[in-house]
Design goal:
Order of helices and strands of chain A: HHEHHEEEEEHEEEEHEHEEEHHHEHHEH
Largest interface: A-B, 142 and 142 residues
Shape of chain A: globular
Number of helices of chain A: 13
Strand content of chain A: 15-25%
Distance between the termini of chain A: 52 Å
Helix content of chain A: 25-40%
Strand order of the largest sheet of chain A: 6-5-4-7-11
Mean pLDDT of chain A: 87
Radius of gyration of chain A: 25 Å
Structural class of chain A: alpha/beta
Oligomer: homodimer
Chain lengths: 405, 405
DNA sequence: GTACGTTTGTTCGTAAGCTTTACTAACGAA
DNA sequence: TTCGTTAGTAAAGCTTACGAACAAACGTAC
């Protein structure tokens, strides 16, 4: 009976991609979308392979067409064809023959044309000013420009941001691949700032405005969601980035894709209440919000309130930072547990975060989650300091325009 | 200057799929994988479109080839070609001409051959017994079989499960599309049970064992992760399912894809500590774990301890359930906030969960998250009761084998 | 120095897959 | 009967990737 069943099954069913045929080869593919949602044409496949070639070159550096073919699994013929297109478009250049001596025909090295395009990145998340930079394809910052915000909101703030982009575009003679913007607040995938109270923006079509003004591809996302892209470029795991500044926000990448959330408000953890014992009153009216514990200005104010002359000032400062870290750990523990995260990154003022606070967060996470499951959890400070949003904006443009990161 | 820049850019760059060319058309595609990881061949595209046709029929029911073409965006020619293949494989059948009178040639209705295959689903998560069922493609349960576990662990438990599958396979004469298993513990994507303390399993290659034994496609995943598939079949949003039974676990679908976690332990929230005021001692040694508050046996025991004769027994019961619900809300709040979830589903004993506990969880979530961002959050009981894991197992097989759900 | 093997990148022909165009079949409406 | 509409199919063409074969260019063994 069972043999009959399996015979019919084997005849009637063609296995889907990713799951080989035959006994024991069928696996549940976790990366496959559950439901196909739109058709795929050959040109889409080609675009994917095009990005794949660029990706290999981007991460592994100059190499021959044959090398790329081996790494991608495509044939040399196909790679040559794709590369020919990409050279014609100016995205790839030939660098000359490989130097080292090997048997066989010498290889012609190719690479992404790293000088062919620049990227404009802008960070609107700082409270006091907008910052921006011209960035090359490798994420190096080539030129900077800032503008003091001076409390500007609404259209005035938009004008400041637009002008900042204009000034940055004037700083380069190289074609610009695109403009990436990290904005505070809730930003939808079409680049509409749904709500950014600090800037007085609501339903502002920032992407459309800038795209029309400058005639360039524009990508806009929440600042923390942008920042996590910069961090993700270095690793491949699921990643949570907590950005602590004037407010507290997070960016999240799961399975290689940014999490946006049902209302495009993923990562908005600043007003989640921490613990069951009250806490400082928050601007939102609640008590014990994460932001009330952890926002940089509030934390700094609490530290400043301590009289340096007092005999135990140092230990009080330490206790304050430690408590803030503990509160962060309390909020993160359920998230780390539910998502089984292996990597959490902190981003913000180093003098506040990197020390007692960081330690306390680690300790709290350890004691409040199942050690067995989260054994290899890493909690670390970002190494990108001030420029993380700018670099993330560049990654966002690279990813959106070339499918590379 | 800027005009020059944009001209070169427009010439040199071909927009990637999903982002149209030209001003304002470029969007940041949130569903695109950041980095292409493997090549895509035409046959992969065809398989995708094949699944797309099946998906449309599966969800929308019998219709003509032309209807499918309109809904998928593929041409009638391509749909006819795909359908011809699928009919040859026995996955689609022609049902005869459409009855209603319309101008033009009458349509030949086609549908997924819903009687051609059955699915075997098994739930290993109950403490006292293993349950299983033969399920049709629409998720209807056609036959059941159970086996008392009687404390069996290790190889004995494996033998019980294997025998249960064998008995289920004997209950149907229809070809079996595949076997789906929901197991407690941590299960990796290859169907290896990395760790299931209750069953005494560690690194047990359950998928491989069953596939070899029965010569059928087998899919294994954690019980809560399986259950959430059943729930997801009804909606399309991000979804968190909390499964409360002997333990407490969760399953999570984000962006249409199950979250697995870095150690394949996503959803293991049972041993996250809740609140900052201690709590009952847990089997794991910590105090105030979610499981210590909420696991069905412990909750029931606390309720049973109340003397029914006592004057205020009812209100004490209520307080206990309410407190448990509050604890659940406290743990979920950071997760809901970080992921901006719109839908959370509870699954477990209705008499415990659906009442004061549920209400308290909703209240707690409301007061501990930002109402503005999570306005449309729904927290509800599952409607699938006992069979959710069995139905989820069927969805897992459907999804894995046909790309349909 | 010559023959041989190796590696690169290209050319040519082929197979797969989807589209456009054009057709036939079958129906209702005027 | 004629006209317009809809379903499904057939033929041709375009895109895309592949395999086979080849020439170029190199090291090495003898």
């Amino acid at each position: 009976m069972t043999t009959q069943v399996q015979r019919s099954q084997a005849d009637g069913f063609r296995p889907s991609p990713g799951s080989g045929a035959g006994v024991g080869a069928t696996i549940y593919p976790p990366t496959r979308a559950l439901r196909p949602t739109s058709k795929v044409l050959p040109e889409h496949a080609r675009n994917h392979n095009r990005s794949l070639v660029l990706q290999v070159l981007y991460t592994s550096g100059p190499q021959s067409r044959a090398d790329v073919a081996r790494e991608t699994g495509l044939t040399r013929v196909t790679v040559s064809d794709l590369v020919a297109d990409l050279i014609a478009e100016g995205l790839i250049v030939e660098l000359g023959q490989r130097a080292d001596a090997r048997p066989g025909k010498p290889a012609m090295l190719i690479d992404i044309h790293r000088d062919a395009f620049h990227i404009v990145g802008v960070d609107l998340s700082e409270h006091r000013r907008f910052t921006g930079a011209v960035i090359d394809l490798d994420g190096r910052i080539l030129a900077r420009a800032d503008v003091e915000r001076d409390g500007a909101t609404g259209d005035a703030a938009l004008a400041l941001a637009t002008d900042l982009v204009r000034r940055l575009l004037e700083r380069t003679d190289t074609p610009v691949l695109g403009i990436g913007i990290g904005s505070p607040g809730v930003v939808d995938p079409l680049g509409v700032v749904r709500s950014a109270p600090n800037l007085g923006w609501s339903d502002l079509a920032l992407q459309a405005h800038l795209a029309e003004t400058f005639g360039l591809p524009v990508h806009v996302a929440n600042d923390a969601n942008v920042a996590v892209l910069a961090e993700h470029a270095a690793s491949d795991d699921d990643l949570l980035l907590v950005k602590i500044g004037h407010g507290v926000g997070a960016g999240l990448i799961i399975g290689g894709r940014p999490v946006v959330g049902s209302g495009f408000a993923a990562g908005e953890i600043g007003h989640v209440v921490v613990g069951t014992d009250g806490g400082p009153r928050c601007a939102c009216g609640k008590h014990g919000c994460l932001e009330a514990w952890l926002a940089a200005p509030r934390l700094a104010a609490r530290l400043d309130a301590i009289d340096d002359a007092a005999p135990d000032a140092a230990s009080v400062r330490d206790a304050i930072l430690r408590e803030a870290g503990r509160r962060l750990g309390i909020v993160l523990a359920p998230v780390v547990g539910a998502l089984n995260l292996s990597e959490v990154v902190l981003c913000g003022p180093t003098h506040l975060l990197d020390g007692a606070l960081h330690e306390a967060t680690v300790d709290t996470l350890r004691t409040r989650t199942m050690a067995e499951h989260n054994r290899d959890l890493r909690l670390r400070m970002t190494e990108q300091a001030e420029d993380i949003v700018l670099r993330g904006a560049a990654v966002m443009v690279l990813s959106g325009q070339l499918g590379v990161s």
